[in-house]
Amino acid sequence: MPLLHSDAGHLPSPDKLTHIPTLMSAYYTEFPDPQNPEQIVAFGTSGHRGTAFLHTFNEEHVYAITQAVCDYRKEQQITGPLYIGGDTHALSEAAFRSALEVLVANGVEVRIAKNNAFTITPAISHAILMWNRGKTTGLADGIVITPSHNPPQDGGFKYNPPHGGPAEAAVTSWIEQRANAYLSEKNAKVKLVTWEKARHDPLVQEHDFVQQYCQDLPQVIDMQLIQNAKLHLGVDPLGGASLGFWEAIGEYYKLDLTIVNRQVDPTFRFVPCDKDGKIRMDCSSPYAMSGLLAMKEQFPLAFACDPDSDRHGIVTSDGLMNPNHYLAAVAWYLFRTRKDWPATCGIGKTLVTTALLNRVGEALKRPVVEVPVGFKWFVPFLQTAKCGLGCEESAGASFLCFDGKPWSTDKDGPLLCLLACEMLAKEGRSPSEIYKQITAELGTPSYQRLDAPADTATKKVLKSLQADTVKMTTLAGSPITSIETKASGNDAAIGGVKVSTKDGWFAVRPSGTEAICKLYTESFKGEEHLQALQKDALQFMESILKTD
To answer: To bridge 98 with a disulfide, which of 56, 62, 370, 482 should be the other Cys (CB 3.0-4.6 Å)?
Structure first.
């Protein structure tokens, strides 16, 4: 496993910065090889991602994917507006323009951000839901152009159907296959108009994502309570799309909110390097967040979001909260304060998110619904209020409005940041203090995720694991209680395996967005037991990946 890089937590040196002109030239002038499996369209956990430098995110990819989305809309008779927006990555603006050229050529009514503003992922999800509420025809959908917290040279493209959340596997598979068919014919059948025509076509209308999101917040957060508490708050947009949203929220609700960094620069030169020495705008990383952490004594509560703002990072006087710790506090708080949620409404979690949530659910007498990794799995549960909260260990979550209706069916970073403010205002103590109370009552978990490089062959092996592949009967000295290759909440394949005992568990799966495999471990018996879990898990991985 990789060691901590010497640059972790330090601002990047000039040689680490992406040369933006070269990147943009590559986007427009270099072409993917449709015969190379590494260069075709591939939707992972959160859409298609890549970089123009490696021929994995170029204009031809965006043309092909957007045409495939138009074909899908036609087949599904989706005739309402398509909401589209992008974050502050350099390739996002280019991909936005490329996508618009195809959308207009296909006669799609498009909603773009007012004044060419950056757009956060949850604002697109919320806009789709608000348009579709009460409708059965003329439904809206959306495109989010973002690689999330990935490094500056990366680009990403995600499709959100009328349910507002990330497209399910059947949909992305359809779009992926159609897009690659276009690529194989050098996009000869892709419909296009010029950028100039697309931008001024009557099909394209501006939408104020900022105003809609900002003004609708009282549906889901007690903004009056936060305002009355007069909390001194700090926020770091990390150079991302949330900057304009935080400015509007602070002004509209008259909050004492200090934006500690207003810089927007596609090199992200102001974001400290992550654990591996790369620039990665991950608000759950203590290394990327070291700038805000240095200010933790200035604010009783501070927070950050990644570039497209689908993730949250919460900083209290105790430091940066581990996402698992914060999500446990969130569940504990929400199900005590949202009195109008259905009594059968449960806690939704991915199966690699802390088992402390299972203990919280048991204490609150609420069902816990476990799904595979990927927020798309929570969409039907949020739509039907079977889950009031959907959350995952990588600092992504969303929850229902006060009336039990969905606010967003995609991850919402600002929402979780504002909930931390509400928690502090109502409870008179920070989320980290609430977490300490929970663990005093329910036990303290030790959790760690380890990453290792994984090529295509390794990922294939991990994805194809079956329960009978696991020959172990004990794990870290305790009897194994379950071996799962499907999630208990929806019987969907997890793309790996999870092995559990009453005191701990491990899970291994390939990443859907990076060339790595992920090993998750958690113990309720302390660090020594966690290390024993990891030792057994690594031996298991070595045994299944051994080649003759």
So the answer is: 62
